[in-house]
Amino acid sequence: MINNESEIGNRKSEIDARFMRRALELARHAGEAGEVPVGALVVLEEEIIGEGWNQPIVSHDPTAHAEIVALRAAAQRVGNYRLPGAALYVTLEPCAMCAGAIVHARLARVVYGAADPKTGAAGSVFNLLDSAALNHRAQVSRGVLAEECGEMLRKFFESRR
């Protein structure tokens, strides 16, 4: 039984890393456009159903965070604003706005790379995804490819100084 649980855990870790690598590719699109390099994707039954990267500057939309863009694409694809059973992979810990959208979409899981000690709402500053005050909770997996995700952000901000 322990081997079986271990194998399941290893497979989950491999899947998480694979999808986070795709989120990093999406984050590069944002960085190339002069946006903060954050990428996100929504996965249902190991299939990507929505992708996005930060676009608030180019779209003139303060809500165009990578998570929101990916959630909108996923909801359009499935024809429903609720995404039960789906997982969101994102290179940076979601902010309060994005965490609220995650709760409303009823996502089962959020997997993020780098923590956000200034505005993170999945445990760093707030924990909206596991709040007893809200009507839905999402399981959170932290730190998947955190070093790569954090390094991309560090390089971006260093180039801006």
Strand coverage percent: 15-25%
Q: What proportion of the residues is helical, as a percent range?
A: 40-55%
Overall geometric form: globular
The value of Rg in angstroms is 15 Å
The tally of beta strands, per DSSP, is: 5
Question: Going across the major beta sheet, what is the strand order?
Answer: 2-1-3-4-5
Largest sheet: 5 strands, mixed
Poorly predicted runs are none
What structural class do the secondary elements suggest? alpha/beta
The end-to-end distance, rounded to whole angstroms, is 53 Å
Q: Number of helical segments?
A: 5
SSE ordering: HEEHHEHEEH
Mean of the pLDDT scores?
A: 94
Q: Care to describe what's here?
A:
The structure is a single chain. By secondary structure, the protein is of the alpha/beta class. The protein has helices spanning 2-32, 56-59, 66-78, 96-105, 146-160, and strands spanning 39-44, 47-53, 87-92, 109-114, 139-141. α1 runs parallel beside α5 (146-160). The chain is globular, with a radius of gyration of 15 Å.
Which features would summarize this protein structure in a list?
single chain; alpha/beta; 161 residues; five-stranded mixed beta sheet; 45% helix; globular
SSE inventory with pairings:
Elements: H1 2-32, E1 39-44, E2 47-53, H2 56-59, H3 66-78, E3 87-92, H4 96-105, E4 109-114, E5 139-141, H5 146-160
Parallel strand pairs: 3-4, 4-5
Antiparallel strand pairs: 1-2, 1-3
Write a short abstract of this structure.
With 161 residues, the protein is an alpha/beta fold. The chain contains 5 helices and 5 strands; from the N terminus they run αββααβαββα. The longest helix has 31 residues.
